[in-house]
Structure formats: structure tokens, C-alpha cells
Amino acid sequence: MIALDFNLNFLTRDLSLYLENHVKVVFFGSGVGLSLVLGFSAAYACYYLSSVAKKPQLVTGGEKFYRFLKEHCPVVSETYYPTFWCWEGRIQTLIRPFIAAKPCVEYRNEFIKTADGGQISLDWFDNDDSVCYPDTASRPTILLLPGLTGTSRESYILHMIQQSAGLGYRCVVLNNRGVSGERLLTPRTYCAANTEDLETVIDHIQSTHSAAPLLAAGVSMGGMMLANYLCRAGRETSLRAAAVFSAGWDVFESTASLEKPLNRFLFNSYLTSCLQASVNRHRQILEKLFDIDHVMKAKTIREFDERFTSIMFGYATNKEYYKAASPCHKLKSVQIPVLCLNAADDVFSPGHEGTVVRGLPINDDRQHHGNTKAAFPVEAAKQNPNVALLLTSHGGHIGFLEGIWPRRSTYMDRVFKQFMQTVIEQGSELENL
């Protein structure tokens, strides 16, 4: 046994010396390894710079809004350089919640009553230390709408508040019914097609701070809800302008994309379970109207909506609900400036063969994106001078990571900050679009 141990130790030592000296010298000392590493790095850099890093495309229906954005929001003209080691859409979507820092934000919570007897939880960031706007009465207010199961604690919401705080603005986050720990008072939650709660919140903010300019930003489902509200309200809104990020413009296309095998595994099942967990928390009041056990057996978002959401809001079929929830065919009714950011590789708002982005009305961008395909309301945006679509090649769903270690500001954060600031400071130029 001693001899065997001695032989093994001797063999291990010799192998280690061989790997450390001979292989190391042959592979790297000869320059072969270094050449391979440099060659691969050069090839990857060429591919990244030619196929990944691109300028976004700006699609607008009028020259005035286009020039306003080009002049005051330089981010819309800058090349977007996604994080080089995770530029693919699914990877960006998956990584952001884990890698993004969560700035510390202290909220003031407020509950407001609704006409049906329910309650809405609002989280206020008052920014009473604002240097630029010390007068609370005139301090600009930004209303933020999180995504499908999101709350005021999502990293993308906290980053928007951090950006707003530096500009001196006040923020308020609309937490959809039942998602932020509050009790449901009525058997009703929320959906992208119904904007009654959003209207209630906007009226409440306006009555509380009537002298302050009010803007809004919605993310994912929050962006869909905001877009549907703007389409319905037209000019009858207190909002001065709005931004929409990673919205699913066509719900039929979104659900079809999310039901593809890989997307179903990565996203659909998880989001369905999150929706079911929220329903289960409020089982006691919801089971008065719904078969909760049947809802809990849903395997996809579509099945969840068929068994719960569409029924709750009185739609005859789920198709009828999805049509009402899709903002893509209604944008002609928007009557205030709206900037919409989407990535072409967002599986929640997927590209397809049917829409080709070409022939911009105002056109130093045409040469870069003559044949870009995207499932976005491009034609509708071209026909409305109040709407601008900002389309990137990469970014995923609420991703838009950039930099080597993307824990801080993202491309989406920069778009949000520049647009909100320029509307508040230069908004008079957008009158009568």
C-alpha cells in the first residue's frame, strides 16, 4: 500500500510538472495559444461591432417630434453597445433581475379607494430634498407603472426613481391590486385592457398636485396599460407626455412566442406560477366568483387568462380580451407625446415576417435599417405625429444592459432620464404636434 501511494504521488507530481512546463511552453510559449486567443478575440470583436452594436431606429409620424428627440435626447442617435458577454435577448432578460443593483429608496405608502369598493396601493417618493424644485407644489411628478407581477421594489422601477431623484422630480408607483402585500377588498385584480384604476390614480395625483407637471412611464404590461389609456383618453388626460418600455404591442403574437418550447421553459411557466401565487394569496375572496382550483392548474399565461383574467373583466372569449389588451391597432388616437422603446429580440414582443420597417418619413436613419423586421406598430406610428418608436436590435425584455459589468444604469434608464428631463424643460416645443 505504501509503495502504491508512493507511485501515485510520483506520477501525479510528474504530470503536474509536465502540464505546468511542457504544455505551457508548447501552447503559449510557442505563440500558438496566444495567436488563437488573439484571433478569436479579433473575430468576436469584428462580429460584435458589425452585427451586434447598432444605432437604434427612430420611427415617427412627424418631423417636429423627430427633430425634438434628435436635438434634446442624444441617446436616440447613439450606437447601443450591449454588454458584450450577454447581448442575446433571452440572456439579457434573464440576467437583469439578478445582476442589476437595487438602489435604496424610501417610500411613503398611500391607499386610495376605488369606485367599486376596492383599494389601490401607491408608493410615493416625495424627494423633499430636491434642490432644483424645492417647492413641493410645482415639483414635477412621474407616475411609474411596473410589469405583469411587478411592484415598486423592482430594480427597473428603483433605477427610474434614482434617475428622477437626481433631476429633482417626485415619483409615485402604481402597485396593481393585490400584488404588493395589501388585502383585496373586492374580487377584482387587474389587466392590461382595463384602465379604470390608472384613471383613478391620475385623477388623484392631479387633484393632489394640480400645479405640478405630470408625466408617466410604463414597463411591459404597465406600458401596455398606459398605452391603452392614452388611446382611450386622447386629449382628455392630465399627462403632459409618457414613455413606454418593452410593451407587448400584439398580445396574440406575444403569447404565441412565449409558448414556443424554450420560451415556455424559461419564461412562461415561471410567470404563470407567479400569477397563480398572487391569486392563491387572495383565494378567500376570489373563490366567491372563480374556480380557483381550475385556475391553479393552468400551465401557461394563455390558460390562466382563459380561466381567470378574461372572465373577471367580462369578455366573452379570451380572444376578445387579447384584442382589447393589444395597443397596436389604437395608436392613432394618442394625442400627447409618447416615446416607445422596444428591442427586436424581445420574446415578449417578437419579430415576425409581416412587418417591414422601411421608408421613414424623416430619414437619416433609413440607411441603417432598410430591411429591419419587427412586430411593432410601425405603420401606426408613422401616421401619428405624437408617437415615436425607438427600436434597438438587441436588449431583450426590460434588459438593455450595457457596459462590462452592467449593475448600474442601462440604455433604458438613459432613454427614460433624457426624455423626462427634456419634456419638462423643453416641452413647450412639443405643443401642437
Automatic annotation (TrEMBL):
Matching Pfam families: Abhydrolase_1 (PF00561)
Domain AB hydrolase-1: 140-402
Keywords: Hydrolase, Serine esterase
Taxonomy, superkingdom: Eukaryota
Coiled-coil portions: none
InterPro entries found in the cross-reference section: AB_hydrolase_1 (IPR000073), AB_hydrolase_4_CS (IPR000952), AB_hydrolase_4_sf (IPR050960), AB_hydrolase_fold (IPR029058), ABHD4 (IPR012020)
Annotated family: Belongs to the AB hydrolase superfamily. AB hydrolase 4 family.
PANTHER family assigned: ABHYDROLASE DOMAIN-CONTAINING PROTEIN, PHOSPHOLIPASE ABHD3
Name listed for the protein in its UniProt record: ABHD3 Phospholipase
Organism: Polyodon spathula (North American paddlefish)
